[in-house]
């Protein structure tokens, strides 16, 4: 039997970012985890994470929106953050989102929801939006070859209700084509009230 502490934030949102990163660093040190995956749209949260893990020996993988997420050809990661991430030795991934991708295009055009989008919605509803994001980013990091997928190496992945992060999970990652081999092993922190904050 294992006893672990879970932190529940009163509300979802970016006000939890610094605490989420701090708790992720703490749990990574406790478990000896050396791979950290974090969602970051502009790159600001990625920079905060890379700074926090500097000197720990952990590899930080920053997962941004795919190019064209907001409008065709648009990249949302900001150059100033990209530069600092590179200086801090973080890896940046921008690729098709694992839990939407082409299926989102089909549902937007033809209506209805795909099975993949149903998985994403279940994660949002049952656990938290940040858990859905953390799971998705861990798949993207695995498919990008940036985290081991050996069935043994655990990672910490962070996501949020946008912007920032409010959820951190210990995950056994898997590729998209082996999704059901992925396991959320622990919740480090998450919001208790999952309603998306107004911003």
Automatic annotation (TrEMBL):
It comes from the Archaea. It holds the Pfam family PK_C. Residues 19-161 form the Pyruvate kinase C-terminal domain. It comes from Methanocella paludicola (strain DSM 17711 / JCM 13418 / NBRC 101707 / SANAE). SUPFAM superfamilies: PK C-terminal domain-like (SSF52935). Transmembrane segments: none annotated. This is Pyruvate kinase C-terminal domain-containing protein.
